[in-house]
Amino acid sequence: MSELKFKQSFIDRFSSITNFDSFAKACSSHPRKSLRINTLKISVSDCIKRLSFLKLEPVPWCSEGFWFENFSDTALGNSVEHSLGYIYIQDASSMIPPIVLDPKPGDRILDLCASPGSKASQIAMFMNNSGVLVANDSGDDRLTALGTNMQRMGVLNCILTNMRGDKMSGEFDKILLDAPCSGSGTIMKSPRTVLTWNPGIVDRLSRLQKMLLSHSWGLLKSGGTLVYSTCSVDPVEDEGVINFARKNLDGVSIEKISLPVKSSPAIVSFQGENFDHRVNNCLRIWPQDNGTEGFFIAKLRKS
Question: pLDDT by residue (tens digit) across 149-191?
Fold first, then answer.
C-alpha cells in the first residue's frame, strides 16, 4: 500500500494523543488477515485440519480466532469452508467486543447495530444457540447482509429487526452497541476514510453515539452489562462518549477489561475537556499496537 496523504487537521488532531508517525505507518500498511472458527458448526480442531492450506497463528485473546497467511481473504471467502459457515473472515480486534460482553446460553441479548453480523454471529456462538438474540440494524441492504451471514453461520436463536436504534424497545440482560463511527481505526482497510474525515462528521457521529447509548441504557436490566465499541480512535467518539454516560446516565459503572491484547492508555483529556478517570478501565487499541484495526471498547455495568 502506498503512503497515505493526511489532512493537516487530521495530523494535528491525532499528533496530540499518539505518535503520529507510527500511526500513519500502520494506516499505510496492510492489516493482518484473520478469521474466526464458528463452533456452532465445527470444532476448532476439526476446522484447523480442513484449513491445512493456510498458515495459521492463534489470536491470543480469542480461542476461536486465527491470523492467516499465504492466502488472500478474497480466495478464502470463496472457499467451501466459508460457504458452509465454518469460518467468518473477521478482523482480530473486532472479535473483542463479544468476548467482553461475555454472552451465556439462556441470556436475552441485543446487538443494536448488528450488520453485517460478525459480532452478532459470534455472540450466538457463545450462547450456543440458546436464549434470545435480537440483532437489529436499519436499512434493507444492511438487513440483507445480516440475514445472509446469520443463516450461513447456523444461528438459530436470533430475531432480526429493522429499525432505528432509538426506536428499539424491550428489556435485555446484555447489550452490544457497536456504534456507527468515523472509522479512523480502519484506514488500513478503508483508505478513503482519510479523504472523507473531518471534525464536523466526528461531532455529528458523537451526538448520534450518545443518543444510542442513552436509549440502550434504558433497555438494560439492573445489573446488566452494556458493551460500547467503535472502530474509531478519536476520543470524541470514545472516552468522550463514556464520560458523557458517567455524567448523565444513572448507575453507570465502568468495569476494567483484562485481555491478553496489546493496548494503549486511555485518553483522559482532549481539547480542553477532562474525562472521568475511570475511562482508564476502557480498552483503547491503535492500529500500530497489533497490526489490526484500531478499536475502542468499554464495559458498562448498570448498578
Answer: 999 999 999 999 999 999 999 999 999 999 999 999 999 999 9
Residue carrying C-alpha cell 441479548: 109
Query: How do the domains of the chain map onto residue ranges?
Result: 8-31+94-302, 32-90
Domain 8-31+94-302 CATH class label: alpha beta
Does residue 113 carry a catalytic annotation?
A: no
Distance CA 210, CA 179 (A): 10
- Closest among 159, 165, 179, 117 to 142, alpha carbons compared: 117
- Is 86 in contact with 33 (CB distance < 8 Å)? no
> Which of 113, 158, 181, 231 is the catalytic position?
231
C-alpha cell at 41: 458448526
The packing angle between helices 140-152 and 118-127, to 10°, is: 40
Query: What is the architecture of the domain spanning 32-90?
Result: 2-Layer Sandwich (3.30)
Q: How far is CA 93 from CA 35, 118, 220, 241, in A?
A: 11, 12, 25, 20
Predicted local confidence at residue 155, as pLDDT: 98
